[in-house]
Amino acid sequence: MLKRVLMIGLAYFGVTVGAGFASGQEMLQFYVSYGWWGLAGAGVNLLIMPLTALAILQYGSYFRAQSHGKVFDSIASKFLAKFMDYGLSIAQFCIGFVMLAGAGSNLNQQFGLPLFAGSAIMVVLVIVAGMFNPDRVSGIIGGITPAMIALILAAGLYSILTFSGSLQGVHEFAIEHVTSSLPNWLLSTVNYTGLSMFSGIAMAIIIGGQNWSPQAAGWGGFLGGLIFGGLLLLMTAALLLRVEDVYTSDLPTLALINEMNPILGVIASIATYLMIFSTALGVFYSLGKRLAVPRPSLYRVVFVAVTLIGFGLSFLPFTALVNNVFPVLGWLGILFVAVLVGTWLVSARSDISAESLRRDRVRALILYRLDPQRRWTPRHASALIQAVDESNLRAKHLGDFMSEDVYREAEQTTGIEIPVEQQRELGERLAKLTKEEGEKTGSGSAGPSA
Q: Which residues form a coiled coil (predicted)?
């Protein structure tokens, strides 16, 4: 459970962090530009992000979502769901080409490569990784994240521990020299909260949809949101203390790490590039999946096409893109946060909690049935049928969803080897079991669908 929560949290942070966060450009414009008031804004984000991430990943797991469209259709009216669906798809595309622009700026600032070179390499990496399945994609993203977290922590602590200037001086310098398109720190915080959710919503839903336990998915999202908010607060303070040295840089975090140690600067440049890759991969992958819903077989064609179109738009200046595109997306993102968190708090939270307990019960009963040392009785069978029948997923979907985890646990605890063919039949077996029970009682029900 703890390992799963940690992996989900790292994967969520990876798809949310983005080029603007990893580079420090977002923190500079949305927080540092308001001096010490920016820290208050970062603190507000630290409170909001974990709860929002928890709700989003629980929704993904609850509906076994393969794209964001299924969640929106289930929790909102038809008109609002369509608006959110199209709005998120457009936002994903915008964030995607901003990530590609950030990749070009990264290698240009650190190694002097032409802007198009860094963007082109990123496009190739994204297209290759996007050919894998969701589990592999989540694994790739989660594996990149720890290195960037370590570097951001190092840069933040270095800036704070070596600061020797005037606190009032850096506050006044930041307000005078760092520009923002938003009028005050509170509106900037609200806007950035929506923006930061936008870059990760679609892929977060898919990550949640790959985890059968809403409880584990939710706590993983909470952890990822906590990491995001904590590092945002730390780096806002770090960049504010060094604002006179980094405010003209496209990638202020990288400039700060280069000041700390040139070798670490090279490592940070590569890590930042990989974090940009994780977000670019997340938004283009989930966008490709969504656009290909009517024809899933065309996913790869659609995915490659939207990535290449994004590459064409990535030649616009990175700093200008962050300053002009992101605030517009942020206001739209606030609507998404309000709908997702609002519906979760009002009604969905109790339903998801009950379904999580139900799935735990199904898993425990299946493991009990697989253990040759235990006696399976009609009472156990009846309890299993009832739990499966009450699930929001059809029996076959629920069995397919849980099969990998259940059989892996059975092999570890009992030592028995279960053929792969038998593992793949769990969904069919549960569907058959509930159907037979329904015929006995005359209902013929196989459980509600989702």
A: none
Domain identity same for 296 and 408: no
- pLDDT exceeding 70 applies to what percent of the chain? 92
Q: Domain limits at 433? A: 371-441
User: Measuring CA to CA, which residue among 198, 365, 395, 211 is closest to residue 283?
Assistant: 198
The answer to whether residue 442 scores a pLDDT higher than 70 is: no
- Helix residue ranges per DSSP H, 76-210: 78-111, 115-129, 134-161, 167-177, 185-209
**361 is a domain residue:** no
- Collect all residues with Cβ–Cβ distance below 8 Å to 133 and sequence separation of at least 6: none
* Same domain flag for 206 and 342: yes
* DSSP assignment string, 285-345: HHHHHHHTTT-GGGHHHHHHHHHHHHHHHTTS-HHHHHHHHHHHHHHHHHHHHHHHHHHII
The total number of residues shown for the chain amounts to 450
Q: Look at residues 4, 417, 1, 43 and name the one whose alpha carbon lies nearest to residue 193.
A: 43
35 and 131 co-located in one domain: yes
Evaluated on CA atoms 285, 287, 288, 289, the torsion sign reads positive
Query: What sign for the dihedral angle of Cα 117, 118, 119, 124?
Result: positive
d(CA 72, CA 254): 38
The token pair at 315 is 């030649």
Q: What is the maximal distance between C-alpha atoms in the chain?
A: 80
Q: Which pLDDT belongs to residue 262?
A: 84
**What is the C-alpha to C-alpha distance for residues 86 and 91, in angstroms, rounded to an integer?**
9
Number of domains in the chain: 2
Count the Cβ atoms, other than its own, within 10 Å of residue 323. 19
One domain for residues 143 and 249: yes
Say whether both 257 and 332 belong to one domain. yes
Note whether 149 and 241 are same-domain residues.
yes
Residue 154: which CATH number? Answer: 1.10.4160.10
Reported confidence tier of residue 447, pLDDT bands at 50, 70, 90: very low
Residue 450 banded pLDDT, cuts 50, 70, 90: very low
Mean pLDDT computed over 174-191: 88
Q: Does a structural domain hold residue 68? A: yes
Domain annotation covers residue 28: yes
- Which of the four pLDDT bands, split at 50, 70 and 90, describes residue 120? very high
User: In this structure, is residue 310 part of a structural domain?
Assistant: yes
Residues 263 and 403 in one domain: no
Tell me, yes or no, whether 317 and 386 share the same domain.
no
